Amino acid sequence: MGRRITGPRASTAFTTIDIDKPGKQNGFVMIPHSPHDDAWGVTRIPIGVISNGKGPTVILEGGNHGDEYEGPIAIAELMRDLPADQVEGRLILMPSVNVPAAVAGQRTSTVDGLNFNRTFPGDPRGTMTQQISAFMSDDILPRGDAFIDLHSGGSSLDILPSSVVEPADDAELERKSIAANRAFDAPAIVVISNLGDTRTATASAIASGLITVGTEMGGCGTVSIEALEICRRGVRNVLSHLGVLPGHTIEIRHENQKVLELPGSKAFVYATMDGVFEGFHQKGREVRAGEEAGRIHCPWDPTRPPETLTYQADGILYGRRQPGRVKPGNCCLVVAAPYQEKI
Fold it and tell me: Tens digits of per-residue pLDDT, 310-330?
């Protein structure tokens, strides 16, 4: 399938299951952790394996950020409910990979404060978050043929439900990833490069040669009924597309999916002052560069006039900040533009 990350590097992590054994297993990745109240304890990362036949291996990751819920729910349901005899190949299921953040309902880890999705390829001798991403890089991704990374907008964003393409230098790998994204059948497909940051899970999966599907499913720090339904159906669609669920019929409801991209730094509208943000438009609305996007009020200093923010790119309003309270540098709005290349 392509280049694999070399490894594994020396690590103290271990599992309570045999990832390469046929059948259905649920257990934990155990990462030694020695805080004040537990000298020889471990942090337990839930993992499930459903293996049968000779098909491809698909890795499903949820809980990359601990305040994103649709993906973890969908993956946990597969762990409980999917019989091994319906699978042709292997599923590696990790519904709450960043478990310290998931337990707290926070984007970042409560143990070391790190954003798991900016730590790849990790460090097996580093902090807890770095050790988890190192285990993913060294022990999980090299086993895979495809990777599904289920995100939502979390506590700070409300995003149009979409599947996400991670750009690849390998044209054939990108073509296969795009086909898998189409099978997911979200209302839109968005190409997101994270401004070229390679420390993400999907960037690492692409570097490892894996067909890769990401998502952004709603947000607002809650469970969206619409987004969860899209996520449940989309996951099974992709698994059927890849041949792992041969008995499942792919259900397509969005024949004319919008194909969008985040147009670099101009996609983002950032807060310029401390205050309360008032957005002018709803998600999905067409917007223009230079158009007024919203304003920031300072209610505790009513003599100060609001500051008006403007869009920096043409496109549609893809995401809105969820909390009204902002400080300089907070992302208030995200614009997605039509993708400029044929995919």
Answer: 999 999 999 999 999 999 999
